[in-house]
Amino acid sequence: MNERQRSILLKSSSRFPPPQGVRLSYGTAGFRADASVLQSTVYRVGILAALRSLKTQSVIGLMITASHNKVSDNGVKVADSSGGMLAQDWEPFADSIANAPDPQSFVQLICDFVKKENIPLEAVKTTGILVGRDTRPSGESLLEAAKEGVSSIVGVVAIDMGILTTPQLHWMVRARNKGMEASELDYFNQLSGSFRCLMDLLPQGNKTNEMHTKLIVDGSNGVGGEKLEILMKMLTGLNMDIRNSGKEGVLNEGVGADYVQKEKVVPCSFGSADVGIRCASLDGDADRLVYFSCLANSNKIDLVDGDKILSLFALFIKEQLRILNEVETEKVEKYHQAHLGVVQTAYANGASTAYLKQLGLEVILTPTGVKYLHEKAAEFDIGIYFEANGHGTILFSEHFIRWLEDRSDKLSLTSKGSEQQKAALRLMAVTKLINQAVGDALSGLLLVEVILQHMGWSIHQWNELYEDLPSRQLKVKVLDRTAVVTANAETVAVKPLGIQEAINAEIAKYPRGRCFIRPSGTEDVIRVYAEAITQEAADDLANSVARLVDQFLGFSSSH
Ligand code: G16
């Protein structure tokens, strides 16, 4: 690194001193903390993104969001050149620069890393950082800090994309690096165009049922509601009512996908008048989606979570593949290896995993975090991944897409209008509608809506695919959440010593009981998940394990 670059970094970093007494970690989905301590971290991540851009000689994304966290928090994460999450082998560097105590050690870390990674400190191809933020009030000044970080690396520029959903930013990075148009309008055009295409391909007779009944969307008082309002104007046939779109009410407070999925109660602005109607909930930055219906005389809901969205998508895709392969003659090439697989985490309801296996699908379990699920799903020709909390998408391999395009072209010549051609066109439209960079509540919602139409199903019929085992999730505040270390896709706690044995003893008291603990990567808590055959048993199991966590690690603990 030359002297000029070094002195630019020294000068700019001295304007962003790190907070005292706070240790930050890149976590499940980037850095998250109270917004007041993040200026320095965001500035430093701006530098990291610029280095990543030079290393990959491509466009990189930087998003300022704390997603489902409370409004006073904020965060920052990097979208890699593929549009997916930052390469995991760069996370330790992110951790070390975020925590470097002074400008000298910070700049030295950068110099060492540039050398180790052999990063060319000049742009040969298209580089640049797309920067976006959600609607949090702290986002504006944090975005400025990010821009300062980016421009501290000579030759890399930040392009301010303004207020976006997180998946929009990921989509734009992916599109840019594929040489496609990548504005917000392009995003809306792609989603609305492919949705229209799927609507045109609905089986005859299914065109009126569900679409004429209302869908009510809870926007979590975040960016998603506002963007969905724009998208809705480009669509026909959807009768959608958007609530909690951020004009009133507090972000993620008593609203949103995280609240609805964890508490299993109606969000604010929903009530008795909505009983039986199909409802959906987005989270604060619109990368999660769950559905629900309100129950009569209660604030409880019937939850249709990420596992059921996954099941719906898997059923639809499996059916289209079956049609495509059904009447193959020897003359046409058959895609023998179309390998369809699904990826879940330990939070997946046991009934969903059993159902997916019964469908004959290969089910893989990973630790929590889109970065892990996405990586596994990419190993299939068609990989569908979802966390129960509503975070997920479908990935199609380049090889499969090429085959599909070719197949579709041939069918349009040999059997135009046939069921096979329609199945090929449907799959092609899904590859465009679904956001293949990352889970996207808006694109996921449109796909759910069109599949329900295709099946001619109500939300209730969809919900009846299988019956969830009762479950309960709790959070426990502890002195040091890093004291919990897990293994086997987070199903076993290997530290603190002895806690897993104590958990096992609790589980043994409940028929079909299942329970695990893990440190959250986005909040300062230990999460507890429990499942059993009755709600009371799931609640009891979760509560007793939460007490164990408190005994082993809590504020009153002597361990
Ligand atoms: C992020 C991640 C998700 C993860 C969630 C909760 O979601 O992207 O993969 O499930 O955090 O993680 P944890 O349990 O470690 O706190 P979001 O929607 O907050 O970005």
From TrEMBL:
Keyword flag Isomerase = yes
Q: Please state the pathway this protein functions in, per its UniProt record.
A: Nucleotide-sugar biosynthesis; UDP-N-acetyl-alpha-D-glucosamine biosynthesis; N-acetyl-alpha-D-glucosamine 1-phosphate from alpha-D-glucosamine 6-phosphate (route I): step 2/2
Where the record annotates domain Alpha-D-phosphohexomutase C-terminal, the positions are 485-547
Q: What is its EC number?
A: 5.4.2.3
Instruction: Identify the InterPro entries for this entry.
Output: A-D-PHexomutase_a/b/a-I, A-D-PHexomutase_a/b/a-I/II/III, A-D-PHexomutase_C, A-D-PHexomutase_C_sf, AMG1_III, PAGM
Single Gene Ontology BP annotation: UDP-N-acetylglucosamine biosynthetic process
Q: Which reaction does it catalyse?
A: N-acetyl-alpha-D-glucosamine 1-phosphate = N-acetyl-D-glucosamine 6-phosphate
What residues sit in the active site? 67 (phosphoserine intermediate)
List keywords of the entry alphabetically: Isomerase, Magnesium, Metal-binding
- Broad class of enzyme this protein falls into: isomerase
Q: Which family does this protein fall into? A: Belongs to the phosphohexose mutase family.
This chain's protein is named Phosphoacetylglucosamine mutase
